[in-house]
Specification:
Number of strands: 5
Number of domains: 1
Bound molecules: zinc ion
């Protein structure tokens, strides 16, 4: 069991609080390794986006695909 990285978690929460204040729509999904609720900006475009993400809590690296127009979030382990 990893120790949650409290400092990264605080930074993660502060960043998304900042985005939401600016009117950005966010969504969240569970980390594939530790189930931490990872927040992300919603995909409001017409194309899927993908990115490699590090969990703020356990530092697991995974691939995140956001389907277009606020659709499903697909997570795969790398
Ligand atoms: Zn994690």
């Amino acid at each position: 069991m990893h120790n949650p990285n409290q400092q990264n978690i605080e930074k993660h929460k502060a960043y998304f609080a900042h985005l939401k204040k600016k009117g950005v729509t966010t969504t969240s999904y569970s980390c594939p390794a530790c189930d931490f609720s990872i927040e992300t900006a919603a995909n409001t475009t017409d194309s899927a986006t993908d990115s490699a993400v590090t969990c703020p809590s356990c530092e697991n690296l995974h691939l995140k695909v956001l389907l277009p127009n606020g659709g499903e979030i697909k997570i795969s382990r790398i």
